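so the lab meeting is tmrw and i was supposed to have these ready like two days ago... anyway. pasting both below. for each one the top line is the aa sequence and the line under it is the structure tokens. i havent really looked at them closely yet so no promises
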Amino acid sequence: MNDLLVKFLIAMDKDEKLKQQYISDPKGTAKAFGLSDADVQICAKNDVAAIKNRCEAEGADNLEISHSK
């Protein structure tokens, strides 16, 4: 798996603390993980279509990202 955005989503799926940090501060958490500015914006906007496309391309199409607490 080469896509850092997908790695970030998988990490959040496995790490509740990281997920809670993301819920509190999506941009800051994504940036701290090392995501590019474009990927930070995808997360901040919760761009479901872009996230889905990236996950599908990496074979991780069952991940979701949510801003809800």
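ok protien two:
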Amino acid sequence: MERRTITPRPGWQQTVEEQGLIYPLTRHPDGELRPYWDESAYYVFSLPEVEALEDVVEELHAMCLAAADHLVREDRLADLGITDPRLAALVAEAWHRRAELPSLYGRFDLRYDGTGVAKLLEYNADTPTSLVEAASPQWFWMEERFPGADQWNSLHERLVDAWKEQARLLPPGSPLYFAHSAGDELGEDLMTVAYLRETAEQAGLATDAIAVEDIGWDRLSRRFVDKRLRFIRSCFKLYPWEWLTTDRFAPYVLETLDNGGGTGTTLWIEPAWKMLLSNKALLAVLWELYPGHPNLLPAYLDGPRELATTTGYVTKPLLGREGAGVTVHEAGAGVVVHEAGASAVIPQEPCCYQELAPLPDFDGNRVVLGAWVVGDEAAGLGIRESAGLVTDEYARFLPHVIL
């Protein structure tokens, strides 16, 4: 693994926008627009490195599924903050019937610098983003800058194949809706669902698009409907389950949830069992089940334990996103050396305490690898860089190549 600088292509911004990346720039707190898609540098991997990382990702994914099964079997969903008995029962049912429920993708965030083993930082298997840039613009960048080279990137093909394989699980006779929140100011969610809709259409599925805010509730039929009052039988939502099950329509979501086998009227993708894999408590459960595993960092739910005086630790809200609420504590006095989105942290909010493993620093750029899983297979890599200790909404995306 090596970071190399390169001169960006002329007209790169228009190029990546035409390839689906509609927000190539990020507005920073000082008001300045800076590249989000950053092709002034790129990362180089060897093929053996990538093959080893693929094995790690698939092993981690299998371990996460085992941890989910443990949480359900041992009735430990409260550790994830799922305390509503009805919701817990539905999540458990979804897990038991997972073979009947479409499930698409997830993203592992890994610490890796090319010299040691990869370490799991977290897993988002419910609403992961940075998909479009990983699947499309960086592939075309490689073809233009390094023709004949390769890349860890089979995302597009695997997504299309996954839709084809799981089409039989979708309710017949109605389109698959793709929903995102209209409150998405950057356009990231819109871009992601539009791309996933495209892959579903390439798989031969009939689709439609809708904003979450435009999903209606028909009181007479007690079903969700679109703006034309058509029943919504299946919907891919880039909208977290923890929001879907707590907003004003949550009772209707639980009432009509299709958990396979005709148990309800609305089938949501990702399925409810993905709540088990998109919660930072998973990190502590993994460490409990696989203590000392080379690809895991020590993590706990009841406090930092020995990490407070040995390595230092990172406090992560169980349902935090984009680095919000993450605090980094040095060993010893518990000094906070970084805090991201502190205003988003509710006092006494349940957290996971994970060993501090500073991100690799390449010339002042701290890098995290986003390794994608489609179905149960490793499918691609996206790389984000940040200036701070925590990868947040101001991180940059850099392409990679296998040479």
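from a quick look at the 2nd one: The two ends are 10 Å apart (CA to CA). The first helix runs from residue 12 to 18. will dig more after coffe
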